[in-house]
Amino acid sequence: MAKRLFLIYLLVEMAVMVALVATIGFGYTVLLLLASFVIGLALAGSQLNRHIRRLRTGLSGGLANPQSAVSDSVLVALGTVLVVIPGLASSIAGALLLLPPTRAAARPVLTGLVARRMPLIVAAPAGFGAPTGTAGYRHGAGDYIDGEVIDVNDVDPYRLPPKA
Predict the structure, then answer these.
(1) Which of 136, 133, 128, 127 has its CA nearest to residue 147?
(2) Where does the sequence pass through the membrane (predicted)?
(3) What is the pLDDT of residues 8-33, one digit of tens each?
(4) For the segment 85-111, what is each residue's pLDDT rounded down to a tens digit?
(5) Alpha helices, DSSP H only, in the chain?
(6) Spatial separation of the C-alpha atoms in residues 116 and 98, rounded to whole Å
(7) CA atoms of 53 and 69, how far apart (whole Å)
(8) C-alpha–C-alpha distance, residues 98 and 79, integer Å
(9) Fewest Cβ atoms nearer than 10 Å: which of 30, 59, 68, 83?
(10) Dihedral sign, Cα of residue 115, residue 120, residue 126, residue 132
């Protein structure tokens, strides 16, 4: 899976570079690549500082929705990584993830991906996780069933017909 994603990344970046070089020339393509990298890093730094402040206020109880703060932080981190990865397409995608309106649009997609990957966590009723069996019996709770295992052979192996 990782090899496929890397191959897709390479193909997209190469297609963007070839198209830009053919359209605006090599020098301007390099300048555009450097400009997108610098702008993306500046945007990433400001957004990281903003989210660190937001998470610190959230720890003291001033955050209304901690789930959105966590998902925004994940999207800011992803955007920062995409900005730092070399390539114009990844830098633009990372810069878009660093902008708050784009993050608001990407948040449901991230939530859907995480919800599909994570196992279902359900709140159990009180006492549902109580020890049962021997552990419950030792502590005075649960059922204890005393039993014996008997191995039964219906066929005597010594009286089988000889192999032909």
Answers:
(1) 133
(2) 7-26, 32-52, 73-99
(3) 989 998 999 999 999 999 999 889 88
(4) 888 888 888 888 888 888 888 888 877
(5) 2-24, 26-59, 66-84, 88-98, 100-117, 133-138
(6) 24
(7) 11
(8) 6
(9) 59
(10) negative
Contact present, 80 and 95 (Cβ < 8 Å) = no
Per the structure block, which two tokens stand in for 154?
A: 């219906």
Q: How many residues does the chain have?
A: 164
Tokens of 83: 């900005």
Return the amino acid letter for 27. Answer: G
For residue 54, what are its two tokens? Answer: 């937001």
Q: Measuring CA to CA, which residue among 38, 105, 48 is closest to residue 74?
A: 48
Phi, psi (rounded to 5 degrees) for 160: -75, 150
- Tokens 């005393």 locate to 146
Task: Report residue 138 as tokens.
Answer: 């030792």
Distance of CA 138 to the CA centre of its chain: 41
How many whole angstroms separate alpha carbon 133 and alpha carbon 92? 59
